[in-house]
Design brief:
The structure holds 3 protein chains of 3 kinds.
Chain A lengths: L1 H21 L29 E5 L1 H4 L4 H8 L3 E5 L5 H11 L7 E5 L9 H16 L2 H4 L3 H6 L40 H16 L3 E6 L8 H13 L4 E3 L24 H18 L12 H14 L24
Parallel strand pairs in A: 1-2, 1-3, 3-4, 4-5
Helix pairs in contact in A: 3-10, 3-11, 4-5, 4-8
Chain B lengths: L6 H15 L5 H17 L3 H31 L2 H49 L17 H16 L9 H9 L12 H9 L6 H34 L7 H31 L17 H7 L2 H17 L1 H13 L3 H23 L3 H30 L7 H23 L3 H10 L6 H5 L10 H22 L4 H6 L3 H18 L17
Helix pairs in contact in B: 1-2, 2-6, 3-4, 3-5, 3-6, 4-5, 6-7, 8-9, 8-18, 8-20, 9-15, 11-13, 12-13, 13-14, 14-15, 15-16
Chain C lengths: L1 H10 L19 H15 L16 H14 L1
Helix pairs in contact in C: 1-2
The chains are: A alpha/beta, B mainly alpha, C mainly alpha.
């Protein structure tokens, strides 16, 4: 018995030791099979320089462009969007953000809050992200490939991302126009909703204003989800902006604003969403304008790069089919 | 899936705790409850098929027992001269019951498993006559483990029929024999006389069983997660888009598939057997280092052993001893008592075995061809054996020398790989085209120009695979020499022992092909 | 017993069947050569061998085979 217990204790110790060893020192490790590094570009930003953090799945990744926010309002933001990110992973990434940034506002995209599948799947996801968070070796075990090559340079310097986590796409494939009458089983799962509570609490504890946003998406949004989130927002006195229902003056153009027929937004959609959210943030929160601040001149440089990237070039590109991602190291979209 | 999920260790732990705190006599009830929940969780409403099989074998076994009792009673009262007549009558009744049972259970299996192919062929057949009929295949719903538990269940009734065992009057116990969680997914296919008593009797907690079981599970995880899931990345890319590849790429994919299938199947069996051993239950071995075999014949005695044994006992023996075949064999031997006569009689019985082996894996020409491939190899081997023996003697080749053994092992390995290609390919046609494409295109240049590194695995992945194969080989060689590794390591001082365990565990955690960017491959044999 | 040994020698002339105690384990007999034996045994000893009798323990050595034959003769 004593032997068994000491075995487990020793095992946990070694596991923790390995976990620190395998934790990437920066997000610059653009490497296959490692979780979205673009979403972790905030590590490369100067400490406490980001005022707005957007968290969520691929909907926010391609629907919210911090550079547009910068250009319009001088607000510094970062999009921590990962394909298929669930609420458990959202919790993890927020606590990663809090290790080096002090955001005033956090935008949570609510699509990923809802359970994707059945109960066991949800349970599995919550367990999986908790294990990965506790022992990062499960997440980053594949880094052995870099460690063994002796290429430490790759792990040495932090690297930001000029588009600040936003996934650029110009492709446009219009939405056919009819939202499928799809049901996803029970709209909410207890495990997910208490993870959302956890997210809310984490924000409150750090004096962060939480804004719930549902970025326009034609297929996974439905009225039940809207109602549930609306109800939740009211109970927790949180703002909830569902851009799928025509809130005040926002209107998406499904003919022009989506890159894949309604699942994700393209540049034009992202600009629309960002400008709308920007004006909302500008009106409701005290967010400083850094455009004239010399400490933030890198942002002006990056905006130029961003503009260059997002402006269509006159020549025809043979190498890049429409919709192909242009950001190095980003994982493939769903 | 199944044994390779977060839920499984929790399930196994809870089952073990419940098992060891329950009074000895009721421990089998814990096994039944655990096995049923495991099955219900994965199979849902398809569990009715498992219940159907359990119920039919339970009833038929008792029925046969009753007939036997009648026969015994009759023997006392019936005059000697009429005994033979009655004996035949009872035998006939028993045969009818067994036939009924076999038809029922294999009927269900066949309908569920082959309806897709059958309706496709039927439609194609009717098209020939310009009849536009459409038989719709039943939705592909295959209850978990049906191909395995059906064989196991039928063997129970046949064993009762043969008088090897008595019928069990307790339905719950029969149900447990059919659905025991450690062998429901991919076998090993157990036999009642070996497995059932172990299930029903309570086992005391035993530290050695526990540690041996855990070690076996770790070994299985290593094979599954480090080897099979990694190899699968290249294999699935090449095999699923085989028209894009040729030469060394296809050859490599074939080799890696053989590795994947072995690691996957035997790894899963190791986890199953390790789980059972923690509870004090020893499952029948299913693999015995098959790649050390010197002939395909031997390979099949050491690969998926329980399936081979099942086919031997319940197909090969009855067919060989059936009246028509015995008469046929006498007839042949009267004509030709030599080697050829034996060859013909053996060949006719083996045909049933190999057709059975093929279609057990699935319907379709591919699986039939898979069975026939090995059948032909064995028949050719048997036919030319005397000639080869003579030739070897003539050139003074010592067939028991080590170099010759190595040659035989290599030859068997190549033949088995061709079989695996057939087994994995999406169809018979693609298998043939892939096989020939190996000899086409960029042979040596693919190895030097690095194109093999762009098939889903990089150089480091190959290094891990190569190193893992070396470990498999080293362990295999030691086991071939009769060294029990688990005992050897168990006798080491504690620090050394634990170092080995931790090295194993962390090798799986670090080098495992899991997590972001990896898709776990489905257990191959759970699909049958 | 002599008749039996003669039949066995027909299967494999190089083996001394009076001495071998583990015909199955040492692969002198396998399932194939076993079923080759059966018609001869049945004819010579006038017995009927069924699949139920084809157990490894019945074919461990010449003695066990002989014991099985005697048993089948008595029961017949």
């Amino acid at each position: 018995m004593i032997k068994g217990v000491s075995f487990v204790v020793l095992f946990t110790l070694i596991l923790s030791a390995f976990s620190t060893l395998f934790l990437p020192e920066s997000n610059s490790v653009f490497y296959d099979n490692i979780k979205s590094t673009v979403a972790r570009g905030f590590y490369g930003e100067p400490k406490n320089s980001l005022d707005v953090i957007a968290v969520g799945n691929s909907n926010i990744e391609s629907g919210f462009s911090p550079m547009e926010l910068w250009n319009q309002y001088g607000i510094t933001g970062y999009t921590c969007g990962e394909p298929f990110q669930n609420i458990f992973q959202a919790n993890n990434i927020l606590s990663e953000v809090l290790t080096c940034q002090k955001p005033k506002v956090v935008i949570l995209e609510t699509d990923g809050v809802f359970p994707l599948n059945d109960r066991t799947d949800t349970l599995y996801q919550s367990l999986d992200s908790r294990l990965n968070h506790m022992f990062p070796i499960f997440e980053y075990h594949n880094l052995w490939k870099i460690m063994f090559s002796g290429n430490t340079a790759a792990v040495s310097s932090d690297q930001s991302n000029p588009s600040r986590g936003y996934l650029y796409s110009r492709a446009d494939l219009p939405f056919s126009g009819r939202r499928p009458n799809q049901r996803y089983g029970p709209v909410m799962d207890q495990i997910c909703s208490s993870a959302l509570d956890g997210f809310d609490n984490l924000c409150r504890k750090n004096h962060i204003q939480l804004v719930l946003v549902y970025v326009p998406t034609a297929y996974s949004w439905n009225q039940e989800r809207h109602d549930w989130m609306e109800n939740y927002a009211v109970r927790h006195s949180l703002p909830f902006l569902d851009l799928n229902t025509s809130v005040s003056d926002f209107q998406i153009d499904w003919r022009k604003d989506t890159r894949d027929g309604g699942t994700h937004l393209n540049l034009s959609g992202a600009q629309r969403v960002t400008l709308y959210l920007g004006s909302y943030l500008h009106q409701h929160y005290d967010l400083p304008d850094h455009r004239k601040d010399l400490a933030f001149r890198q942002w002006n440089e990056d905006y130029k790069r961003y503009l260059k990237m997002t402006t269509p070039k006159p020549t025809v590109h043979l190498g890049n089919p429409p919709g192909k991602r242009l950001i190095a190291g980003s994982p493939s979209a769903r | 899936m199944y044994y390779f999920s977060y839920a499984y260790p929790i399930f196994l732990g809870l089952t073990a705790i419940a098992y060891f705190i329950t009074p000895m006599k009721k421990r089998w009830g814990v096994l039944l409850a655990a096995s049923l929940s495991f099955y219900l969780y994965y199979a849902r409403f398809l569990t009715v098929f498992l219940l159907f099989t359990s119920l039919t074998i339970y009833l038929c076994a008792i029925w046969i027992d009753k007939i036997d009792a009648c026969a015994a009673l009759a023997k006392e009262y019936i005059p000697r001269e009429k005994r033979a007549e009655y004996k035949n009558k009872f035998l006939w009744q028993k045969k009818a019951v067994v036939t009924l049972l076999v038809l029922l259970n294999f009927g269900v299996l066949a309908v569920l498993k082959y309806s897709g192919v059958a309706s496709d062929s039927m439609n194609a057949f009717l098209q020939l006559f310009h009849v536009q009929a459409h038989f719709h295949p039943l939705p592909m719903l295959l209850p978990l483990g049906i191909s395995f538990y059906t064989l196991q269940a039928v063997s129970y009734v046949v064993d009762v029929y043969r008088g090897k065992i008595k019928a069990n009057r307790n339905f719950a116990q029969v149900l447990l024999f059919v659905c025991f969680f450690a062998q429901i997914v991919e076998g090993p296919i157990g036999r009642y006389d070996h497995l059932a008593p172990q299930l029903y009797e309570g086992h005391r907690f035993n530290w050695q069983n526990f540690t041996y079981g855990m070690q076996l599970i770790l070994w299985g995880l290593f094979k599954e997660i480090v080897i099979a899931d990694r190899a699968n990345m290249l294999v699935s890319r090449v095999m699923d888009h085989y028209t894009k590849y040729s030469g060394a790429a296809v050859g490599l994919a074939t080799l890696l598939y053989t590795l994947q299938l072995y690691a996957d199947f035997s790894g899963c069996i190791d986890v199953a057997a390790g789980s059972a051993q923690i509870l004090g239950i020893h499952l029948t071995p299913n693999f015995q280092r098959p790649f050390f075999s010197r002939s395909v014949n031997e390979f099949w005695r050491r690969w998926h052993i329980t399936l081979g044994a099942w086919l031997r006992d319940y197909v090969f023996y009855p067919v060989s001893l059936s009246k028509p075949l015995v008469q046929f064999s006498r007839f042949i031997r009267r004509k030709n008592s030599s080697h050829l006569g034996k060859w013909i009689t053996a060949g006719s019985a083996l045909l049933f075995v190999w057709v059975g082996m093929g279609i057990w894996h699935g319907a379709g020409w591919k699986y039939l061809a898979y069975g026939m491939y090995y059948y032909l190899l064995m028949m050719l081997g048997m036919l030319f054996e005397p000639a080869i023996a003579k030739a070897c003697k003539a050139i003074h080749l010592n067939r028991e020398a080590v170099p010759f053994h190595l040659f035989q092992i290599l030859r068997t390995f190549v033949l088995v790989n061709i079989g695996m290609l057939l087994f994995r390919a999406n169809s018979l046609q693609s298998a043939v085209s892939m096989f020939f494409s190996i000899f086409r295109g960029t042979g040596a240049s693919a190895i030097t120009n690095g194109s093999l590194l762009r098939l889903g695995l990089d150089a480091k992945d190959f290094a891990v695979l190569a190193f893992s194969v070396l470990i498999l080989l080293a362990v295999g060689l030691m086991q071939e020499k009769g060294v029990s590794l688990r005992r050897t390591v168990g006798e080491w001082p504690l620090p050394a022992r634990w170092a080995v365990y931790f090295a194993g565990i962390f090798a799986v955690i670090i080098f495992g092909a899991y997590g972001t960017g990896y898709a776990p491959a489905a257990l191959i044999y759970a699909g049958f | 017993m002599d008749k039996l040994l003669e039949i066995l020698r027909g299967v494999n002339p190089d083996v001394d069947f009076t001495k071998e105690k583990d015909l199955f384990g040492s692969h002198i007999l396998d399932s194939l050569s076993l079923v080759m034996l059966i018609p001869d045994l049945e004819e010579t000893f006038d017995i009927e061998i069924t699949p139920a009798d084809l157990l490894p323990e019945n074919f461990e050595s010449a003695e066990t085979i002989y014991a099985m034959i005697t048993r089948l003769q008595e029961n017949g």
